[in-house]
Amino acid sequence: MQHWIDEPGEVRQLEALPVSEIDAWVKTQRRHLQGTPVIRQYPGGASNLTYLLHYPEEDLILRRPPLGRLAKGAHDMKREADLIHALRPVYPYVPEIYAQGYVATVGECILMQRLVGLIARNDLPPDLQLSESQTRQLCLNVLDGLIALHQVDIHATGLNQLDRGEGFVQRQLHGWSTRYQQSRTTDVGDFASVILWLEQHRPAQDYCHCLIHNDYRFDNVVLDLENPLRIIGVLDWEMATVGDPLMDLGNALAYWVEAEDDAMFQFMRRQPTHLRGMLRRQEVWEYYANRTGASLQYADFYTLFGLFRLAVIVQQIYERYCKGQAANPQFAQFGQVTRYLEQRCQRLMDARG
What is the pTM of this model? Predict the structure, then answer.
């Protein structure tokens, strides 16, 4: 089962860290460490960049913002660290933060605990043979992790300070629309009809306000090596905030690729939601509603917004790649993904009338 552990790869050249500066800063926080760290990088870093620092005494995780122009308020390392600190006593799935600070030539960084486990990316390990019923239970456990987050008492944790009040849905729609226009390149569409549909079909008010992850997916969940159906960690809290939980669910479902989906959506798959036993997207909505009492009146809006928001995220990364500010060669295909997501949104709008 050790080979199920999520391991990093080589550091991408443009995103290399200065070893001596990083080592000096880390040792001001973890004074027991000896030697020089071996630094490796996790390949999934499309937003904040994540590295493994291997010392003889322990492994550490370091996170830093991506290169290039950043959206206002995005990639705030201190905010992410403070949120995890506040959440850790009541939500057992977050890693421990060891330090947050500024490193010369790198910028703001977070140093944190490494959660050792299995991360279900595109596919489960070939030798992890789950039955259909076990796969369903894994799916439900991951969804329950999101439901548990939405039930955190934001006032008891002090996280209510992140709440900007009513209008979360409208602010999100305006903010992501603006980000798309700012990152649009000449080879992608304008999403004008999608944005108009969202404006016309959005709920008049937020469903409620609670803590939301804003990027909850299987590949941000760490599973127990001894019992792979059990969650031991949730990662990547950079976009977490207080807002409408149905936005969180709609955003999560934008990544939820089913076995019957078309070839391009299958190409985009980053989690094993295509397996027999996994809930379908509509079943996810129904399970969430049954567990929480949420209304599904505006499920189509939240679903479409999730796809639009994913398109904006993809396009922001693609723009950075086009400008030579992102090193991952996979990003060269993201313009095609942006165009596909606009078409997918249009098909969903047409189906809903």
Answer: 0.91
